[in-house]
């Protein structure tokens, strides 16, 4: 169903309200039969988008409310979260920063609601990767991340005025010998990088940008 403006060719053009066959509704601007301009799209699932459209696609500034209670407010390109935006997750965590192709990508800040901790730094395809700071209540870690985990040289900075320097090293997994019939069921668990401290100093200006990223 459509109730609204049309052009001389009979196309939806101008302002209108539409109910789609799947039960979704749209109220907003049209150009030559396509959603273009400002509008609000309500999904039957309970999701809602309000913002800019270009030729039926979310494009420009817009806010998307997801059915699980999460929300994205920011830039869209060709139906994808892309540019600058803030995502509030269902558990209360927030990410504010750069997006590309629907994923956290570039510089951004992720705040963990439960602990108040903050990750401030680089992201690659939705994963924490590159120089960053992990800021906790009374101390912080400055270093590099690789595939979501700290790796290589870094330092812990404590609020009472000192630093612990060291590095996160990838520990080789030692597999225990097993009987032959158990081999097929062996599951290799992901190994967390281990922190190896080297020295305690007063506060220094070192930043992780001073070194090359660790090789994978």
From TrEMBL:
Cell compartment(s), UniProt: Cytoplasm, Cytoskeleton, Flagellum axoneme
SMART domains, per database record: MORN
Predominant subcellular localization, coarse grouping: cytoplasm
UniProt GO cellular component terms: motile cilium; nucleus
Gene3D superfamilies: Histone H3 K4-specific methyltransferase SET7/9 N-terminal domain
Keywords: Cell projection, Cilium, Cytoplasm, Cytoskeleton, Flagellum, Meiosis, Repeat
Protein name, entry field: Radial spoke head 1 homolog
